Amino acid sequence: MFHPTIWCDSDDYRADVEVVDPKKCLEESCKPKCVKPLLEYQACVKRVQGDESGHKHCTGQYFDYWQCVDKCVGPKLFAELK
Amino acid sequence: MVGGGVFQQILRRKLHSPSLATPVRSWLSSKTAHVEAGSSGVRAFALLGAGVTGLLSFSTVASADEAEHGLACPDYPWPHDGILSSYDHASIRRGHQVYQQVCASCHSMSLISYRDLVGVAYTEEEAKAMAAEIEVVDGPNDEGEMFTRPGKLSDRLPQPYANESAARFANGGAYPPDLSLITKARHNGQNYVFALLTGYRDPPAGISIREGLHYNPYFPGGAIAMPKMLNDEAVEYEDGVPATEAQMGKDVVSFLSWAAEPEMEERKLMGFKWIFLLSLALLQAAYYRRLKWSVLKSRKLVLDVVN
């Protein structure tokens, strides 16, 4: 079973391993939980792409998606940090 | 227009009527007396139109407000959040290092002195050595001249700019605020600053930010003058902790929280102690009051009736 805590652990002190930012990593792992707002945002992007007026934007859907991701990441993040 | 005229007539009639006791009945009677064939329908349609317009305008205002207020920041479980929790002083020490190396080039912290760091993040010797690295203007001397000397513990942390105008000039008109009280000066300060520092992202489709500004959803309005400053391994921590963006964000916010509320630990201890003692005092006072009042409260009244 996919276990984000192991995946995003920054405890790897080996010099050759690239440091992984736990927040970015957890945001990736929270994407599956927030598929619905993500799809809404992508649908909005498609609609806005054809817009010539410059007034249309996807801030609402963007905020909904990131709010969902933030709610998911928030309680878990500090467990990965010193 | 016709419906509006009828409505005004009805209002005038209501206002001039001597008694407002039966406003509904008089309104109904005036309505039947004065209404023409189609005007009530027109009036109803006008009211419906006004309602729909109101609802629509609310929705557009709401979406403009979203970016204006900024994305709501999540609540992170800070180690010093609990009722008896102290600061993570190792985190404060790392956070000061981040401030010094990343933030101090633009942000002042003019309310903090080097001596405040002693016993919190550094030993006295370390703080003295840090202070000695900076040059401070002092004076006048016996000859009436100002001179520069190495810093002492009693000196404030150095300011990057001489004044606000210089700061604005160097940063495209934007003033990098002093950070001494920033976590108290912003709503939900600790979470907001952490979210802001680690929240630089690509803007949503349809939003373009002008040259010189950067997109940050947590910043009210979305366009912030400060670029992304926390990048992985921008700083090398002395204690060997990997300096990821999130780690630096956590440490610097711990440092800023301490800087804004250095009294927090003492305050929590005092608060716990005095709330406990005052609760005991309350129980004692309640018992004593009831003891003294028992004399009066257990009085009996005898009704002596003479037939």
Explain the layout of strands and helices.
The complex is a heterodimer of chains A (82) and B (307).
Chain A: H1 4-7, H2 22-30, H3 35-49, H4 59-77
Helix pairs in contact in A: 2-4, 3-4
Chain B: H1 2-16, H2 23-34, H3 39-69, H4 89-103, H5 124-132, E1 135-138, E2 147-150, H6 164-170, H7 182-185, H8 189-198, E3 214-215, E4 223-224, H9 245-260, H10 264-297
Antiparallel strand pairs in B: 1-2, 3-4
InterPro entries (chain A): Cyt_b-c1_6, Ubol_cytC_Rdtase_hinge_dom, Ubol_cytC_Rdtase_hinge_dom_sf
Protein name (chain A): Cytochrome b-c1 complex subunit 6
Membrane topology (chain A): Peripheral membrane protein
Fraction of helical residues of chain B: 40-55%
Structural class given helices, strands, pairing of chain A?
A: mainly alpha
* Uncertain residue segments of chain A: none
What structural class do helix, strand and pairing data of chain B support?
A: mainly alpha
| Rg on CA atoms of chain A, Å | 17 Å
Give the overall form of chain B: flat
Along the chain, the helix and strand elements of chain B come as: HHHHHEEHHHEEHH
N-C termini distance of chain B? 81 Å
- Percent of residues of chain A in beta strands? under 5%
Tell me the CATH architecture of the domain at 75-110 and 172-281 in chain B: Orthogonal Bundle
Query: What is the number of beta strands of chain A?
Result: 0
Q: What spatial form of chain A do the alpha-carbon principal axes imply?
A: elongated
User: Which topology of chain A does CATH recognise?
Assistant: Helix Hairpins
Largest interface: A-B, 36 and 35 residues
Contiguous runs where pLDDT drops below 50 for at least 5 residues of chain B:
17-24, 28-35, 58-62
CATH architecture of chain A: Orthogonal Bundle
Provide the β-strand percentage band of chain B: under 5%
Query: Which fold name fills CATH's third level, the topology of the domain at 75-110 and 172-281 in chain B?
Result: Cytochrome Bc1 Complex, Chain D, domain 2
- Nearest-integer average pLDDT of chain B: 88
State the CATH superfamily name of the domain at 75-110 and 172-281 in chain B. Cytochrome c-like domain
* Rg of chain B (C-alpha, Å): 34 Å
Subcellular location (chain B): Mitochondrion inner membrane
Keywords (chain B): Electron transport, Heme, Iron, Membrane, Metal-binding, Mitochondrion, Mitochondrion inner membrane, Respiratory chain, Transmembrane, Transmembrane helix, Transport
GO molecular function, one term (chain B): heme binding
Main location (chain B): mitochondrion
